[in-house]
């Protein structure tokens, strides 16, 4: 991941502080993350183009691409002026960074379905390697909802309830590592809860909604404790801390509501595969599921009607219609046909 190296670079750890409290970020400090995000976005678009050429681009390709590009843009916004400069002199700016990197950008990236794009664009051998990675034991553990929840909310609680936050203010590399943790943990949680990509051992929608409710409760509790000054180790003016707590409370609620909406919007009746993967590539969306179920039901009824017709007594007058007109579905088209079954010497339907 090119962006990880940029996030961990010492220059990006924290803006330079002046004695008057201002912060200035030279162009060489914020250019690397912008270039890294641009490279990731360009790679995604190349994969989409390759998938189209191979005839495997299905679903809302443009919407997913727009979402992924928006996620890359949010990362650039969080790590470049004026947000990065604001974060260097005010805790509220740091909280804006936290929301962008840990909640909003990951959700946009996840809705871009990067794993699905890679599976459709990569050669078969590389695709099988990616599937093996997704089905590996470490990935199954990381993708388990309680683990993803612990990494997301637990890292946040550790950062603000211990001296870790103050240490990140003094050590640029540690500050970059905190940014990277927010981004990766947020991506993992959003992918497990509402990602359109296949995920190992993904539970049902009620279980994921329950985990999301726990995340909302934890975020709200931490924000309230921070606002009251309890169990926090943030050394900043009280007004800044309370302002950051309010941003965390209301901004986190909005992000989690968007995540819940994405969960409902991307949900579809899924089928379990032998490898334990489920997702859009092994499931039918709602419309297709309903249409195919309708076809199966009507076909079964038609076969039953034909069976009754063939079993009709031979004494029935010739030319008697024993089956009413039935609607036959064929793909997205509907055509009407009248099944008139004849007895006697006329072949039956």
Description:
Helix 9 (145-161) packs parallel to helix 12. The longest helix is centred in the last third of the chain and has 29 residues, at 238-266. This protein is mostly helical and 349 residues long. A two-stranded antiparallel sheet has the order 1-2. The protein has a two-stranded antiparallel ribbon with strand order 3-4. It has a two-stranded antiparallel ribbon with strand order 5-6. Strand 1 (16-17) and strand 2 form a beta hairpin. 33% of the residues are buried. Mean pLDDT is 77; it is low at 6-22, 278-303 and 305-349. The chain is globular and about 55 Å long. It has helices at residues 2-7, 27-53, 61-79, 83-89, 91-111, 114-121, 124-134, 137-142, 145-161, 164-170, 172-194, 205-228, 238-266, 286-310, and strands spanning 16-17, 23-24, 199-200, 277-278, 326-330, 333-337. The protein folds into 2 domains: 2-282, no CATH class; 286-337, no CATH class.
